[in-house]
Amino acid sequence: MGLREQKKEQTRARLTETAWRLAAERGFERVTVAEIARAAEVSEATVFNYFRTKEDVFYAPLEAFGDRLIEAVRTRPAETSPLDAVRDFLMQSHGLLGRLEPNEEEARERLHSMVRVISESPALLDREQRAFARYTEDLATLLAEEAGEGDPVASAVVAHALIGVHRSLVGYVRQRVLAGASLPRVADEVRDHCRRSFSLLESGLGR
Length: 207
Hints:
single chain; mainly alpha; TetR/AcrR family transcriptional regulator; Tetracycline Repressor, domain 2; transcription regulation; Arc Repressor Mutant, subunit A
């Protein structure tokens, strides 16, 4: 990555971090793009150079996560099933468990703050659902392309089932974090639920 791209990524990350900090203080609906720009020491136009909407400032990381998940399925070894690829991705440290691994108080407070902001914002909850729907559709399209003349409905069913595990785990994590559970404990619980959920799907979906 060149210096220019590094600076762009740093600016993007600073905008997202600033947006979450302001939302933690006042709530998503009470934070404006102008305030995010001012706190991040950039112009309002700069914010819109990186993000189309205020919701995008907050949810770009989730969409990037979905893109990486789809890419993990697309580039999986020939002997690996889509189910195994999604399971492996979610179980790895860069997947769903990434935010749960640290044991520091600061990490717990940061995640608790993010979960609280999302839970209290209808706009962010709606955006989350639309993000899930988008990469469920992307996965269904990929599986249908791989199947060739196969059943597109079956590909959609598989995609919804696989992404459904992720959606359910996200909901579980949110519930446990708001209840004050320690992150290492939640991480262990997520691993257990992830294994059992995919085993359940595997018994019906197989390869």
